[in-house]
Amino acid sequence: MLIYTNENNPAALKLLIAANYSGTNVDKKIINVNDRTIQEPKHLPYLEVNEDSVIFVPNAAVWFLFPHPENVSTAVNEWLEWESTILAPSLAHVIGAGSKNEKIKSRLTSSFKKLNNALENKLYFTENNLNASDVTIWATLYPLYKDDVLSKEYLADCSNLLKWIKNVEQSPQVKDALNSFAISSATGAYQALLTGARYSLPTAPLPENVSNVSNQSPQHQHEVVTNEELQAAVNAWSKDVNQFPKLKSKPKVVLPNPSDRNILITSALPYVNNVPHLGNIIGCVLSADVFARFCRICNYNTLFIGGTDEYGTATETKALEEGLSCQDICSKYYAIHRDIYEWFNISFDYFGRSSAPEQTELCQDLFLQLNNNGFMFTESVEQLHCEKCNRYLADRFVEGGCPHPGCNYEDARGDQCDGCGKLVNAVELKNPRCKICRSTPKLKTSQQFFIDLPKLEPLLLHWMKKSAPGWSNNAQVIGKSWLREGLKPRCITRDLKWGVPVPLNDFRDKVFYVWFDAPIGYMSISKAYTEEWEQWWRPKPNHEITLYQFMAKDNVPFHAVMFPACLLGANRGYTTVSHIMATEYLNYEDGKFSKSRGVGVFGNDARDTGIPSDVWRFYLLYVRPESQDSSFSWADLATKNNSELLNNLGNFINRALVFAKNNFNKTIPEMKLNKDDFTFLVLCTRELNSYISCLEKAKLRDGIRHILSISRHGNQYMQSNQPWVLLKGSPEDKIRAGTVVGVCCNIACLLATLLHPYMPNTSDILKKQLNVTNTALNPESIEITQFLPPGHTLGEPSPLFTKLEPSRVEELKQKFAGKRGDSPVKMNGIKPMGINDLKVLEAEIAKQENKVKKLKSSRADKKLWQAEEAILVDLRKGLEHAQKSCPVNSVQEPAQEQIKKLEEEVSKQGSVVRKLKEGGANKADWQPEVTKLLELKSKLANLLGTPIVDGQKGKKKK
């Protein structure tokens, strides 16, 4: 074998190192880049395997030479591609050619950070041993590393990367290659790399004053495009679109197939005790829907199920509030949720209910399996009992002060504190009170079942090590922190009526606690969908199932610890989660959603605004809180709609289709592509590749940005070529105009497919305008071909989006602003809330009066209406007190602004504290932040005129 290379080229070094590792004898021949004997396409270096076989792409030659294990990670190929398309060209241009292009320099700096982060706590990039990706990256970086000045400039903050370079340098195979092929200087080496690879920067000038194009448009003339990418684009464009896989039709019932990639998707089951707001929607159902739609267009065998969580105390509480039976409450809110999700185009294969008979059957069955396997035990438990109501109080029927040190939240529930986010035992609450009658409950004992989590911990730990790498980062942090702290037995039964009854004598008057019961809903809803449900949840050996579960981060403990522990303990081959995709929280205008205060947009509100569901979907996904809390903003919604959808995406598509209609009779013209056209296709292919990579990892927010980047490239491509001018020129110019428009129409067809997961209605409308049917994506072969060949007849074009006027946006913002600082008032000396606004109190009293009248007229149980009447009495007392102590309009506008500012600071600081605690930070780190939060809350309480609760137990009033 013979390596042909120019002097000083680090790309030749990687071939020599690879040959040394495989023990392959290779010779090298140093030639000039202008030598006429260089074989086409005249790139250096290249590897001549024999007289009939030559490998022209250096990284392909490394792959050929380097010895690989049987199962090579796909990440190796990803690194090889990244090195050849990003790292090597950037170094060649910045150091070899002295390029001042800030975009390329920025990309180079980002590349070093990427490499450094990838080597965190690792010896090599992808495997436990050095592989082909390490060789290629090391050889490319070596000249930079050996130059003291450049190394300090670019690698000073990359300690992991420097350590890795030094480690690889000690390899005998590397030392031998360095001895046989000298690298004289960094500048000379990267000049040799530049000329050998023939990297080029297209020099077409950027258009000035381009109208209707986002000012974030990529300057694709300044993108580095390799000859390998150009050739790949040429090859792809020449393929017949009929060679590509067709979109499979959906079967009546989706069942696993051994020859397919079987994807099972669930979205967290929302409680049926309220209307979902935008944060609830993006946190689970919308995120899961986008991923499900993506999987389907990739022809993955996909089942997407969801439903409502209907058992538990949340339902009982809501039933009491509305004077309805639990069953009626569930039916009412199930219909509300179903209608909202249908309007948002959530494509469930089945949307069920956890109160269905299948739930009782499967929940009891799993309990008995765990009990028979020795993972259950009974124990006498102290529970709070309300003498006045004559009932044991479930967790959600108890409120009080949070028992955790450093948290003074006074409205913690009996199962969880919303102030610090930690789980709570109801009996540990400070100053507990019955949520129904407000009286102080007493402790009584009751025999309950516990699941022995410490006994299951070794199983769970082993399982999590294998599963957690596929989870979102916050899910990994939360799940691992639970195991790090050590698991404790958890009570799984309660003395309630509304729930799945315990199927054992002496316990049949008890029901299962919601955290044990609810996740089983995924299985029971699957069973309601098909009697063959076990094919998904207890699959055959040859049916591999990959389970993705979408949720907000507060649901992670139940899906990362509790539910898997139960499935593993049953030991019946149940499918366990491979990918937990958890979001952070979506706030509303930097505050919180509040149904009671009328703050924020809820599902039914979105429908009533007149803004299309696709626009809501687009914006929620654009601001999806993937790695940190984000915020819904009306102003930002209008900006993104008007700039990204209308002026960028819609502008590109509409210009192309209207131009084709007006000048080519709605027919795709003859196309003769040149290098500029293929450069454009290369850039779009890169975005397509990134789009698929992001969605495969459920990074949905990033995926939508790649769609918008394609349309930005398209706008600039069209503006640069100006087909409207070319039409007035020579016959060759007219063919050129047709080429540009034909290419743009083909990219619009690609966009119609990529939009489908995000904006399904828009995708369908665009396909109709293009006169095409649904097409599939092929993640195994990411290429752009002629989706619309010459002669294809287009449909009728029309604008896809409309402008959101500032006046309308401001109107909607005011409508959903509520009254900050105002909230329902809790009396009995517990904690007055809000600023005692008289109008709010009067409205609450009117509402409560109607509730009491309704209960009495319907002859409801005396305890129910007496409890509501007690609340009414408290509200009236509160109004009387407010009238005496707080004259109307006593809180002026400046104070309102201060309140708003402090509320925002409290919210942000609360997020800081939660993240530190969830991340397992030391007390010394989070305690100062807690103190800061308490100080902010104190300032807010003083401004609102509410008492500052010090957490001390008060004396009883006589």
Structure characterization notes:
51% of the residues lie in helices and 10% in strands. The chain is an alpha/beta fold and 958 residues long. It has 5 domains: 2-197, Up-down Bundle (Glutathione S-transferase Yfyf (Class Pi), Chain A, domain 2); 217-243 and 625-818, Isoleucyl-tRNA Synthetase, Domain 1, CATH 1.10.730.10; 262-363 and 516-583, HUPs (Rossmann fold), CATH 3.40.50; 379-451, Methionyl-trna Synthetase, domain 2; 838-944, no CATH class. The strands form 6 sheets. A 5-stranded parallel sheet has the order 7-6-5-17-18, sandwiched between helices. A 4-stranded mixed sheet has the order 2-1-3-4. β3 (46-50) and β4 form a beta hairpin. α23 packs across α27 (731-755) and α24 (675-696) runs parallel beside α27 (731-755). The termini are far apart. The relative contact order is 0.08. GO terms for molecular function: ATP binding; methionine-tRNA ligase activity; tRNA binding. It comes from Asbolus verrucosus. Residues 69-189 form the GST C-terminal domain.
